[in-house]
């Protein structure tokens, strides 16, 4: 079989180990493997490169994705996807492994519905996909965030400040709640568990009156304007407050061991599924076991895998 592999949407640490696993497991199972450059854009332009065992050596520790990623809005058009399928058929490609987030899965589902076999791998730091406990990249990004918040706490405490730290996640609070728990954040604000601003300010006043030197508020992006919120806290709570938006630093860096292993398991599992003639599904990990669900199931199921972490963060605050 000829298998193509692409990375799409936002890059995530661990995409390279996932590509490596697909290439190595594919070749070791007797398949040919092709890399598609720059996500769905490379499918549409017919940008394929035959991979060898050597083309993926020394990439396990590299951040980002060596085959590039892109966002191609036009991929929601039938004629654009048809061009992609025609290009793959012309190159003799039988199946595709698509590594990315929910948008990538929507594109993969659309290709599946047009009769082309696709298996998806969850590659996003946001952990915002259902039917998997973790996505590839989540743990590395979490380590980066925890390291940053610990550092911010040092300066915050020295200056007796309140610090708001905005983290990624799009509309999913998994990174914020996990980082908040790990750093002992005084407040964790996520789309799933928003907090009343007045209540936060009241609690900060009490905090200050108890002689506490600093407070950390971890918040998911897209919840509010953190700089305006910092100003409100400064005006009303007695704490000088600063906001830090961590930004793209969270997506970069060498993948941690957990992400490398997860990516390896998922990539090899995707090849096994295709070898068995199974496609139209996305790979996940649940209770340490590899699982697969249809794209429809993943895209229509609420993502609630971190509920217990939120409760724990509240319990041991
Ligand atoms: P991240 O979680 O990092 O944002 P993502 O995979 O969700 O990753 P998107 O930009 O949302 O990133 O999607 C990646 C690509 O998938 C899009 O640029 C587009 O090419 C394709 N895509 C998204 N939605 C659809 C859709 N409804 N139909 C077809 N293709 C889609």
From TrEMBL:
Its cofactor is Mg(2+). Allosterically activated by ADP and other diphosphonucleosides, and allosterically inhibited by phosphoenolpyruvate. It is found in: Cytoplasm. ADP binds at residues 20-24, 153, 184-186. Mg(2+) binds at residue 102. The keyword Acetylation does not apply. It is an enzyme of class 2 (transferase). InterPro entries: ATP_PFK, ATP_PFK_prok-type, PFKA_ATP_prok, Phosphofructokinase_dom, PKF_sf. The active site is at residue 126. Residues 2-274 form the Phosphofructokinase domain. Keywords: Allosteric enzyme, ATP-binding, Cytoplasm, Glycolysis, Kinase, Magnesium, Metal-binding, Nucleotide-binding, Transferase. Pathway: Carbohydrate degradation; glycolysis; D-glyceraldehyde 3-phosphate and glycerone phosphate from D-glucose: step 3/4. It catalyses: beta-D-fructose 6-phosphate + ATP = beta-D-fructose 1,6-bisphosphate + ADP + H(+). ATP binds at residues 10, 71-72, 101-104. Pfam families: PFK (PF00365). One of its GO terms (molecular function) is 6-phosphofructokinase activity. Its EC number is 2.7.1.11. Substrate binds at residues 124-126, 161, 168-170, 221, 242, 248-251. PANTHER family: ATP-DEPENDENT 6-PHOSPHOFRUCTOKINASE, PHOSPHOFRUCTOKINASE. Homotetramer. Catalyzes the phosphorylation of D-fructose 6-phosphate to fructose 1,6-bisphosphate by ATP, the first committing step of glycolysis. Belongs to the phosphofructokinase type A (PFKA) family. ATP-dependent PFK group I subfamily. Prokaryotic clade 'B1' sub-subfamily. This is ATP-dependent 6-phosphofructokinase. It comes from Paracholeplasma manati. The gene is pfkA.
């Amino acid at each position: 079989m000829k298998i193509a592999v692409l990375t799409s949407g936002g890059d995530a640490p661990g995409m390279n180990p996932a590509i490596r696993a697909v290439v190595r497991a594919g070749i070791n199972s007797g398949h040919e493997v092709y890399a598609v450059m720059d996500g769905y854009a490379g499918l549409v332009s017919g940008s394929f490169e035959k991979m060898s065992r050597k083309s993926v050596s020394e990439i396990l520790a590299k951040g980002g994705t060596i085959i590039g990623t892109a966002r191609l809005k036009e991929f929601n058009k039938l004629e654009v996807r048809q061009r992609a399928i025609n290009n793959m058929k012309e190159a003799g490609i039988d199946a595709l492994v698509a590594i990315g987030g929910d948008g990538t899965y929507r594109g993969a589902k659309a290709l599946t519905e047009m009769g082309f076999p696709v298996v998806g791998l969850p590659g996003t730091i946001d952990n915002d996909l259902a039917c998997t406990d973790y996505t590839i990249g989540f743990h590395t990004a979490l380590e980066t965030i925890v390291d940053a918040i610990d550092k911010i706490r040092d300066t915050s405490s020295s200056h007796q400040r309140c610090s708001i730290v905005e983290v990624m996640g799009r509309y999913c609070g998994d990174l914020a709640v996990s980082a908040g728990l790990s750093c002992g954040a005084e407040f964790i604000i996520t789309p799933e568990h928003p907090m009343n601003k007045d209540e936060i300010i009241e609690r900060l006043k009490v905090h200050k009156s108890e002689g506490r030197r600093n407070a950390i508020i971890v918040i998911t992006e897209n919840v509010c304007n953190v700089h305006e919120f910092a100003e409100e806290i400064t005006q009303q709570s007695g704490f000088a407050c600063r906001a830090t938006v961590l930004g793209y630093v969270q997506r970069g860096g060498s993948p941690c061991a957990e992400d490398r292993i997860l990516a390896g398991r998922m990539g090899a599992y995707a090849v096994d599924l295709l070898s068995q003639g199974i496609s139209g599904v996305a790979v996940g990990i649940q209770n340490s076991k590899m699982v697969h669900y249809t794209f429809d199931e993943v895209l229509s199921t609420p993502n609630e895998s971190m509920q217990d972490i939120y409760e724990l963060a509240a319990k041991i605050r």
